[in-house]
Amino acid sequence: MLRARQNDVLIDLTKISSQQLPHLKLTKHFSCPYCGAPVILRQGSKRRAHFAHQTPCRFGEHESESEAHLMSKEILREWLIDCGAKKVEVEYRLPSGNRIADLYFEWDGKAYAFEIQKSMMSPEVFQQRISDYRHARVEVIWIFIGELNRLKTTYRVNRVMRLQKEQPLIHLNWRERKVTIFNQIVWMNQREIEAIRKTFSLDQLTIQQVVEDDQLRVNRRLEDWLALKKDFRCHKFAAYQRKEYALLRLCAPFLINLSLLPSVIGWPIEGAVYTKPLFIWQAYVVLCIMSEYKEQDVFTLSDIQKKLKGLYRLKEGPHCLVGLKCYLDLLVHFGMLKSQFGYFEYVKRPRLYAQLDPYLIEDAQLGERWKQIKDFS
Fold this sequence. Notes:
Elements (H helix, E strand, L loop, with lengths): L2 E4 L2 E4 L8 H6 L3 E2 L6 E5 L7 E4 L13 H17 L2 E8 L6 E8 L2 E8 L5 H13 L3 E6 L4 E2 L4 E2 L12 E5 L4 E10 L5 E9 L5 H5 L2 H28 L3 H7 L26 H15 L5 E3 H12 L7 H14 L3 E4 L2 E4 L10 H15 L6
Helix pairs in contact: 5-10, 7-8
Protein name: Competence protein CoiA
InterPro entries: CoiA-like_N (IPR057253), CoiA_C (IPR057252), CoiA_nuc (IPR010330)
């Protein structure tokens, strides 16, 4: 452990020179910044100077920190101070609960905490930490520092980043002092996400870009998503037309191809619903309803799930039922279906056009309705 408190002052051994260590060893009354128990300063010929507990640490989640974690906290602390944040504190203990924030600061009258994360944790632990911060009325912002693998048009993120789906993903490259913000995150299949990626030098990044209000984020998210829909219609559809034979057979009776899919297809749903990309599995859902049912027919969530699995061999993801229900609810909002007492009624066939331009106009119109749904924004 490289940090300890002494009379409410945080002592950081990474900033103590070898000449200062003998003087520091003469002082006493060091305490653990996590559990508050007494610690002692140790230094030997084989291990670097560090603080050690005299008894086991009572703070259950305390772990030794890596160089990346320590450096990230220091870099972000300096950045917050330079940006004018108030009450910037490292290893800040929340007033309520046994929780210590990596970095605490106040901005525009609100309290925030940076949680810097590299190693994997369970979803239960992740949600518990978020709950602790909400109870303390502190908004937590997760900063991920693990390796980030990038494909050409789709981003494969490290496993720990998959836990954070409510807000944009923020990744810090502490060596290069660069921050990458992933907005408009949608799981295209089991392992990949589609996202709008923007990279900033830390010197050019502002706090407002990290903590911007929800309405600004929603407006930008719609604009970015419409760009993704247009890109699929104009370019990406061709790659799927060479391999999605079952879907092409569904399109044939309606005289459309994958670039002319109805505008109700291709809207972001959280979680890995099916292993196929989002635009493709949603096309199967809509065209299956149009093919298998007549207007005013009634069906259940289980009915459509069985048809997709039995007739079209769609492989389900871990969030299949939840995601499929969310998408059917969105089709209700778009006016294609009605929902009552656990049943869905097919009330209106979506518009089909022979050209691309009317779809782009309708995509924008449905986008304004999509913004009104809190769960999808």
